[in-house]
Amino acid sequence: MTTKEHDASVYEQVQTSQEFQELKRRFRAWTFPMTAAFLVWYLLYVLLSGWARDFMGIKLFGNINVALVFGVLQFVSTFWIAWAYSRHAAKKLDPLADKLRHEVEEKQQ
């Protein structure tokens, strides 16, 4: 068996392993709902900006209106999601990914 064939078989074994399937499940269980929630939040902002101008124009204090607050919250939510994903990955994904990486490295030696 050539090195290339051996590498392919190792990766095929990893791909079908329970640990790898669990890693994919954990990744998808967090990213898919979070992506959907963010898209809904973003589209809500766009729709309100286009069709609820009176609501978005309500002044909250000084020259600060609802639209400006929602716009700033878009940035805040983006940074929050990045921070939350980083924590999720460090706790739930990285340990399992490290374990799989070490197993692959051992098989390749």
Structure description:
- The protein is mostly helical and 109 residues long.
- It has one domain (3-108).
- It has 4 helices and 2 strands; from the N terminus they run H-H-H-E-E-H.
- Strands 1-2 form a two-stranded antiparallel ribbon.
- Strand 1 and strand 2 (64-65) form a beta hairpin.
- Helix 1 (3-16) packs across helix 4 and helix 2 runs antiparallel to helix 4.
- The chain is elongated and about 70 Å long.
- Keywords: Membrane, Transmembrane, Transmembrane helix.
- The chain crosses the membrane at residues 30-52, 64-85.
- This is DUF485 domain-containing protein.
- InterPro entries: DUF485.
Give the topology.
Blueprint: H1 3-16, H2 18-51, H3 53-56, E1 59-61, E2 64-65, H4 66-108
Helix pairs in contact: 1-4, 2-4
What is Rg?
A: 22 Å
Number of helices, counting only DSSP H or I runs of 4 residues or more: 4
Oligomeric composition of the shown chains: single chain
Order of helices and strands: HHHEEH
List its traits.
109 residues, mainly alpha, two-stranded antiparallel sheet, 4 helices, 2 strands, elongated
Question: Would you summarize the structure shown here?
Answer:
With about 110 residues, the chain is mostly helical.
